[in-house]
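pipeline/complex-builder :: batch 7 item 3
reading input block
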Amino acid sequence: MSVRLTDDGRVELHGACPSADAETLLAYLSEAKRTVDWRTCDTAHAAVVQVLVVSRAELLGPPLGAFLRQFVEPALKAQ
Amino acid sequence: MNEFIAQFLVECRELVTQATDDLLALEEQGDDRERLDSAFRAFHTLKGAAGIVDFDAMGRALHAAEDVLAAVRSNAGQVTPQLIGDGLTCLDQVSQWLDAMQVDGEIPSGADAQADAVVRRFGQTIEAPGPKPATGAAAALHWAGDLQRRHADLGAQARAALRYAPAAEAFFRNEDPLATLAELPGLLVLEIEPPPSQPLETFDPFVCQLVFTALFSVEAGILQDLLAGKTGAEAVALSAGPDSGLPPVARNLIEAQRLLLADSNAEPTAGRTGSALRVAANVLQSLGRVEEAEKLGAIGRDGASAALEAILEGRFEGASTPGAVTTRSSHEATPRALRVDVERIDALVNLAGELTVAKNALGHAAALAISGGDPTALGALLKDQHAQLTRLVAALQRSVLNIRVLPLRTVFQRFPRLVREMVVTLGKPARLVTEGEDTEADKAVVESLFEPLLHVLRNALDHGVESADARVAAGKAPSATIHLRALRQGDRVIVEVEDDGGGIDIANVRRVALEREVATAAVLADMPDGEVADLIFAPGFSTAAEVTSLSGRGVGMDAVRIAVERMGGRVTLHSQPGVGTTVRFSLPFTVMMSAVMTVEAGGQMFGIPLEAIEQTLRLPRDRISLIGAAQAFVLRDRTVPLIDLAHSLGRGGGRDEAASANIVVTRSAGQWAGLEVDRVGDRMDVMLKPLEGLLAGMNGIAGTTLLGDGRVLLILDLQALLS
């Protein structure tokens, strides 16, 4: 599972997150205000990133994947 | 005349015709949106073409026309007879230029003044109705300019801006806009425009609402090429350097004058300075920057060099920099037309003549039969005429297919520039050598080749070619050579990309395949090296230790195989450690003729594309094992799933369980499958007709063709059937 809820209530994105993860992620983030830990996230589908954008969830980074780290994280931070 | 110009002329004439037709139709029906869009596209594409051959005057004239049409499109202007008239005048002028170029291939002298006249016409048209509206182009520049300003630190590095608003249903279509962006070369910075704020509870995560804007270090044209077909992507060129607002040709000319004056070996004489300044002033004048030209003329010998420098850097006194940016939106819908060599049409006309003769001969034979002529003589006559018709029909078929044939040059010629950009991005020196550009193939094949070839070239540069240091250490030339070649082999066209890089690291492929769960350890252990290398075509495989912006995430090679197989081709890979890798596409000469093997299942004839068939065999039923609800058998130590063809196409029927099974073993997209059929028929060449009307939605069928006895043969689409 590339998206999961940790024992301490954080959401963890791990490895390659496909578009299907967007729904799960959204469900977790709608329940409560949660931090998203994407330090082991390699790639994320745009649908997943869109949930991060819309939810304005706090992110724990930097993500593992070069593209996410170099381009997507700064774009999210700039908002 | 060089081929580039020849192509330019042909293309422009078509576009002028298109634009003229559209303008005339617009005059009839002022509110025809489609015609307006089509006219705009034609002008726009003409302008782009002018830019490609550095015909600035033509670009300027067309730009003016385009601006006016853009205003109409954004409802800020109206179609008036004057506008139509001006548009047609502009096109007439373009036609005259094209005529002049046809003679000697040179850009006509005096074009600048003529362009000025055209621009002036449109100037009046724009100013006439009240306050000047923001044109479409100006609106487009707005975001690009803003983006550039926010990232001013990137300076001259940023050469193109991209705004990408994927369609709302993009995710449903299995697209990943981020992956698309990640694959583009030269990304400098990315911004994501947030969707309008909304409560999370009602937010639909599968509707794409994202808008991306980004700056790139490559030219906008390259992005446009790569994004062709993607909806909502608009790439815009940013002018290079601290903007001088000068087109490249003008820039070069002025730069040459500056160098002339800077030559320390020569004493700057008054004559030399004067002539340099005069040339520069003329250049400015021709660009309509009259004020600056006059100022330059007044400058003395001492300030000349500094003044030229100032012009080049866009800080010359009184410089009123015109638009810093030029827009060229991506993916125009091109009208479906085919350019055909007259000779090929002539061949068809001749054939039509011969066919008429053959038809008349048949009439004669029929009359003979009715009047009760000698049956033996009649039979001989008919046989003779049948042979004649066979020859003619075959010739006709060849000629018709030849019409759709294009040289591969049309796709090859796009690569040198792209490879150059990739080399710059990656910092690995390499050169591309193309061979056999004259090899011809069906239009559909040629046009579908660009993307897979691009992926392969990218991979060769990114993963295949070593760094210059590593190459020298291995005793190779520091600069890599990549051969892109095409050749004809019988009825196949071979296209190869061969690099002289490090070859595929088989051990590494094994390791990664295991890591990424592309194959299990047991399977890998038994797999010969050749097949292991083939795993790079598996979905989700990437051997790059680090994901680069160029080759993305290994989706490339997977896409390559799918694209090539869709054309009825095959991809093979040959790699030698330390020597290099060759990726070879074997493609059908034409996609319309396909070789199929006929089979019968459930009382219906089907055709299976021959290139997908590995073998046919008869298998006793006890060798077929049941795995859950599915069946499988073992062939050469490989477990192959067995599909009952009649059953899977909804044509169930009784089967003799005692008899052994007739199986056609197929391989498509690397996937093996056995199809159980009632009978295996013959091999034949068929002309494939795509499914139309009610049949169009039928899954598992690629097309139909008619058999000699009038029955319809359904050609199976194995990829769809097996998925």
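note: The interface with chain A takes residues 166, 170-171, 176-179, 181-182, 187, 189-192, 194-195, 198, 200-201, 203, 205-206, 208-210, 540, 546-549, 553 of chain B (CB under 8 Å).
queue -> next item
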